[in-house]
Amino acid sequence: MIDTKISWAHFTWNPWTGCNKVSEECEGCYAETILTRAGRDFSILSPTQTNVDPYRMEAGAKKWNRNSICFVCSLSDFFHIQADPWRGNAWRTIRQCPHVKFMLLTKRPERIMECLPADWASGYPNVWLGTTCGVRASYKRVDILRSVPCTLRFLSVEPLLESVTDIDLIGIGWVAVGGMSGRLHTTRKMDLEWAAEVHDICRAQRIPFLFKQASNAHTERGINALSLYFAGRAGQEVDPGTVPPIREYPMTELPLMPFSEHGKRFTMKEYRAYQSDA
Questions:
Q1: CATH number of the structural domain spanning residue 149
Q2: Does any domain span residue 1?
Q3: In-domain check, residue 98
Q4: What whole-number distance in Å separates Cα of residue 209 and Cα of residue 84?
Q5: Going by DSSP bridges, is the β-strand pair 46-47/100-106 parallel, antiparallel, or unpaired?
Q6: Could you give the 3-state DSSP secondary structure of residue 241?
Q7: Fewest CB atoms within 10 Å of the CB: 8, 103, 191, 224?
Q8: Which residue, 220, 196, 228, 221, is CA-closest to 209?
Q9: What is residue 62's predicted lDDT score, i.e. its pLDDT?
Q10: Helix 87-95 / helix 52-63 crossing angle, nearest 10 deg
Q11: Cα separation of 65 and 30, whole Å?
């Protein structure tokens, strides 16, 4: 089984790699950085030899009578048109791993319906469909996702680049929020008030909410930043080491495998520096 530094999953699986930018949220893409450093042309998709990994995840989850979460295509997009020749094999693997919840996150939700398998019906029980919406211009993606039948729909509000306080979360079952990482983390910095707005909408609608990170040069930094923000808003003086990150998950048929806390918590000095530059 393969562990991952992505805080909302137990594992990642890349049946293919490569992608191309389609919206504002694609600026500073970490996948492009990783593949370019490896000498790859990011715009050309290539299949991998990693189909064994989901079966290892399935074996582990089945052994413990639990569910695990797998983030699919962390280095690509599951519904990219260049992946059409290989997607059938991926669907077959997914069907054969019922203890694994496969998260299919896309910035191309308009392609989902034409790429679903013939036996999809109202959705596979172990597939969650999601889209990225970090700016208001991407609300249309949420509308498209809402029209697709599936077990659970989720949103990656990352990188959150502006206030999306009027976002419509009807039909959404999970929301994750995070700031920009990489070279653009200062110029496209997330205001924690924007994250708090989404959190409050989720709380009012009883939607599980996960705060992934603050904006930082490195991923998974400031994982407790929103917790510190709420403490400050309530007038509380807290020790940042004792304030847990806000990480909620959807209900699953079986208990989820335990999560390791990835990432670095802000110290109070780091948090105040972040806020002073907001």
A1: 3.20.20
A2: no
A3: yes
A4: 32
A5: unpaired
A6: helix
A7: 191
A8: 196
A9: 97
A10: 10
A11: 34
Assess whether the previous peptide bond of 15 is cis (omega < 30° from 0).
no
Say how far apart CA 115 and CA 106 lie, in whole Å: 12
Domain, as residue range, for 141: 11-276
- Where b means 16+ CB within 10 Å and e means fewer, 144-165 reads bbeebebebbbbbbbbbbeebe
The answer to the question of residue 4 being in a domain is no
pLDDT of amino acid 6:
80
Q: Strand, helix or coil at 107? A: coil
Q: CA dist 190 to 164, 187, 193, Å?
A: 12, 9, 8
* Confidence (pLDDT) at 96: 97
Q: What share of the chain is helix, strand, coil (3-state, %, to 5)?
A: 30, 15, 50
In a domain, 29, yes or no: yes
In three-state secondary structure terms, 70 is strand
How many CB atoms lie under 10 A from the CB of residue 28? 16
Answering whether pTM is above 0.90, one says yes
- For the chain, list residues with pLDDT below 70: 1-3, 278
Question: Which amino acid does the sequence have at 105?
Answer: L
Per-residue pLDDT, 24: 94
